[in-house]
Description:
951 residues; alpha+beta; seven-stranded mixed β-sheet
Amino acid sequence: xxxxxxxxxxxxxxxxxxxxxxxxxxxxxxxxxxxxxxxxxxxxxxxxxxxxxxxxxxxxxxxxxxxxxxxxxxxxxxxxxxxxxxxxxxxxxxxxxxxxxxxxxxxxxxxxxxxxxxxxxxxxxxxxxxxxxxxxxxxxxxxxxxxxxxxxxxxxxxxxxxxxxxxxxxxxxxxxxxxxxxxxxxxxxxxxxxxxxxxxxxxxxxxxxxxxxxxxxxxxxxxxxxxxxxxxxxxxxxxxxxxxxxxxxxxxxxxxxxxxxxxxxxxxxxxxxxxxxxxxxxxxxxxxxxxxxxxxxxxxxxxxxxxxxxxxxxxxxxxxxxxxxxxxxxxxxxxxxxxxxxxxxxxxxxxxxxxxxxxxxxxxxxxxxxxxxxxxxxxxxxxxxxxxxxxxxxxxxxxxxxxxxxxxxxxxxxxxxxxxxxxxxxxxxxxxxxxxxxxxxxxxxxxxxxxxxxxxxxxxxxxxxxxxxxxxxxxxxxxxxxxxxxxxxxxxxxxxxxxxxxxxxxxxxxxxxxxxxxxxxxxxxxxxxxxxxxxxxxxxxxxxxxxxxxxxxxxxxxxxxxxxxxxxxxxxxxxxxxxxxxxxxxxxxxxxxxxxxxxxxxxxxxxxxxxxxxxxxxxxxxxxxxxxxxxxxxxxxxxxxxxxxxxxxxxxxxxxxxxxxxxxxxxxxxxxxxxxxxxxxxxxxxxxxxxxxxxxxxxxxxxxxxxxxxxxxxxxxxxxxxxxxxxxxxxxxxxxxxxxxxxxxxxxxxxxxxxxxxxxxxxxxxxxxxxxxxxxxxxxxxxxxxxxxxxxxxxxxxxxxxxxxxxxxxxxxxxxxxxxxxxxxxxxxxxxxxxxxxxxxxxxxxxxxxxxxxxxxxxxxxxxxxxxxxxxxxxxxxxxxxxxxxxxxxxxxxxxxxxxxxxxxxxxxxxxxxxxxxxxxxxxxxxxxxxxxxxxxxxxxxxxxxxxxxx
Length: 951
């Protein structure tokens, strides 16, 4: 607590459950998100409730109670009962949401808070409280790594002096639009629309010949497959994971049916309705021609290996085949849009565009900038996408070039008609319309048959090579550029409507957060959502937009676009690919990347320490499950001179998004509040003196969250325990062991994990688990803690270390898990036990568990073997098998079986077998004393655990 200013709200308890519910409300409907989420692609945006909470609680005193805070945030229900607090009201409405009769906002009594603005009276009252808290002045709020602008936008909406800094030039332009442009010269939406329509009309006149239409219909999307030539029979194989055009749950729809020639080398397509034209068992559109990087020839059934696919791609042998066209009827009839096979005219038009690009000197060299090697770009480089132009087909390239040229034509006219600031706004938003077109019209924009639409290039936060992709007809009325422009104008309108306090002082800076052009001790409040270690390679990904934005806006924001690509040297991310050439036995590329990230974050935090007032507060939002990332971040925080004074877990991530579902990605953000550490006392503290305190505070916090209706997953409760652990550790820093060696934050975080793990064992598992072998204990705890079959490798490794085991040995020798995209995927019994119905010589040698054995290496092996025997031979044979192996008197076997019943999701096949073994005929042999609740349906977890169906 500061000696001069009051304690802040963030340094007391917060209504995190209410904020978590509000966050889920905001993110549940992807068509109803804050406008900054639609303005331009960015790769990490904090939701409004968490951002607003972080800002307001960092500037308001702790005398503000929860009801007052929530009302100021916009959570002010009009149907609140006099006997209820707002937190109780929101929880109750969340619990009964599925039982409502009207709209969601009517049920809760208020709209999503991103749509709620404080009134002038509220602003005046809040400003008065803030001034009393901050020595008569409004505090200035700084976000030094502002990204898409969620945090500074909320600060500016409450009239606070706000500074937003961002290294990445693409994000800096986004910040200008989100924070400044809607304040300039009234409403310019009509002007943006008028000039966008002018660009579209001029471009249409030049592009129509390359996208022919008929009198009755206009093509809107063209669906292409990359092709590979069969090395045996010479067939040009179209590559696609499926052939659905409309997919209604895999049972009916529209598809492109392949026709393989006997003599020629070109596959033909016709469009079919399933099951009206053809039954699915005769032609299954889900059957792919490529999987796991290998293709299969449709004619001679030869497998084309990954190496050959990549060789042909890199040597530009790959072709592209148009196989379906999505069109709209031009008449006003009730006819639905449809699909048709390509005609000779369609193919000739695409060829004409190709010839145009190759013959035009400027087009032939457009975007010939090399794509640098990197963690994400390596995915596309393998398939011959070496230059930024290769991200687009030649006709896509021609389309985007033409729209850029027309933008350049109107740029001069706009500057002649408007003042400089207004021209900047119009040109920026027109660029955003073009960038939206890039996102939905590249070789990485696939066709989504479930929604009958194009997926955006960054549907995942990477450069995924697409075997098939969709091309947009940009000039098609109501589609293509029309849609991009209309959506951007709508975003601009929403920003104007929702911007809030128009007189707040807002400054956007572009530069390195470790070298800010700000005075010493001039900032009262810092709220930061830092780069997330190795989660997202922001610069690598945003280069996709930068190379075009550089052409559009280089003379509008010349100080943003001074190089060919985004700045990567100063970027604070852990990118192992940067160190591939210098890594060796001494240090791996991963370790070198970790060290660089820590060094850069230390520099950034050191700079924030310099600009922060002595009485200031530094609020840090961090979402990452890897202890390694937490250790790196907190080491930087401590090294820079900060002490953690409070921490709060907030459920901020929508668990059903592509990036979250089934992967045990972080669903919670931890909000850490820090202050400058006093330099008066640097006496070292012995680790042995605070070790017990770190364990106890972690356990206590876990128990409080677990029993407090917070609805956090267990792995998020571990994450939440890091905050109070760091409070203890940083207050006693520096910390040394009995020999005087420095103790790192990682040691304290590992202690926290162990304490919470022990709490979970005590709370959720049978006591006998503590006596089983460590390998079995790891498997059980992995299911208990992560609650899904798939989770990050680093977390599995740290859990194994706690058991005294090596994770890779659990995979290599015991096959308890396998890798999936770098993650751990736990194996069920059928992946580990040899087939008892086969002769021993004919069984798979890859499976380590022999069901004929009388003794087993681990208790899990014995239980998995019993499951296999029960499933294969029935209850009687399983009873005999278990009796022969004395399972009824084996405490480890019984403890493991009971534990699996407690931790496995009920839809898992192994849980069902464990249930039958424990409760059926064999249960009499085992004589387990089980609680009835073990067999109750776990409906509450159905959605979260349903990800098992993906594996």
